[in-house]
Structure formats: structure tokens, C-alpha cells
Amino acid sequence: MDETIKIFNEGSGELWITVVLNILKGRPQRDLLDLMCHKAPHTPLLGIDNVTYLDIQDRGLDFPLNEKSIFVQEDAMVYLDKCNPYDVIICSDGIEHFTKEDGLKLIEKIDQKCKTSIIFTPEGKYMVVEDSVHPDTHKSGWEVEEFNKLGYSCVVFPNFHPQLNKGAIMAYKYNNT
């Protein structure tokens, strides 16, 4: 598939939701894993009831959990090794917190555990400090070509963060899981 679409709109939660809903259109959506969810302000607006919110830090969510959703405080790599498959896994603003090597391992684990994978990250390097051990630090930058080589299609937002003069990438893949 490896197609790339560019959307020049300024970034917003509404734009993120619209693009994700289009990626998921016609795909199974019984359950979702929101990897490295942080406060997950937009995930509940996707309309998927069974959501596992996962983050290494318990920062609290921007909303109360429904009766079918849970929050898990754990390392993403450890969790992916033991969890059951999901229909959808989203890693939004998360992969850049891994080194490139660990990020590639994360993508491999994600692809093995879901039918649809969606990864959202800044385009290129942004505030990367490769040797930091703090979980909030960016340790890698990602380019469209890297995702394409892994079989992902991409939506590129060159103006997603105009105040930072930084774009974003939403890479997505339909897996055989």
C-alpha cells in the first residue's frame, strides 16, 4: 500500500480524530490499545468502548473510564509481550520516546498484536536527546520513508505544529493478525 497523503491544515484534536476514523472505516474495532496514552484526550471520541490505556507513568486521564475500559501502568514492550491481540493499537506521540532500535522493535510487536496499527509522531527529529533516561525525553526522530519500508502508509501534516514549525506523521498499517 505504502501511499502518502499530505494534509496542510494546522493540527488539532479534531483533525487527529477525523484522520483516525477514516483509517478505521470498515475495519474491526471491538477493542483498542492506546499505547503510551498519556492523558488520552481524543481516544474516547473514537467511539470504541473496550479500550486499554497504557502508560509507563500514571499521569491520570482527561476523562473517567467507562466500565469496559482499563488503565494499565506498565512498560509498553513488556505489556505487548504478554497481552492478547487487539483490533486496533494506537501509539500517539509515543514512539519518539524510544531509541530508533527499540522503536523498530516496538513497531514489530505492535504489528504482531493487532489488525490495524496507527502511529502518530513528529516528522523528523524534534528535541531528541538520545542518551536520556527520562521517559518524557524524545530519543529518536521518524521519517515517512522509514514507515513506508515497514509497509505503512502515511498521512503527513507539514503544518501540524505551526508554533513549533514542526510537522507530524500518522503512519498506519492493516495487519494479518
Give the tags:
177 residues, alpha/beta, 4 helices, 21% helix, globular, 8-stranded mixed sheet
What does this structure look like?
By secondary structure, the chain is α/β, with parallel strands linked by helices. The chain is built from four helices and eight strands. The chain has helices at 13-24, 76-82, 100-112, 144-149; strands at 4-6, 31-35, 50-55, 70-73, 86-92, 114-122, 153-161, 166-174. Helix 2 runs parallel beside helix 3 (100-112).
Could you provide a short overview of the structure?
The protein contains 4 helices and 8 strands.
- The oligomeric state is single chain
Unreliable parts: none
Name the average pLDDT.
89
Work out the helix count.
4
The strand order across the widest sheet is: 1-7-8-6-5-2-3-4
Percent of residues in helices: 10-25%
H and E order: EHEEEHEHEHEE
**First-to-last CA distance:** 17 Å
Taken as a percent bin, the fraction of beta residues is 25-35%
Q: Name the overall outline.
A: globular
CA radius of gyration: 15 Å
Number of strands: 8
Structural class: alpha/beta
Main beta sheet strand tally, sense and closure: 8 strands, mixed
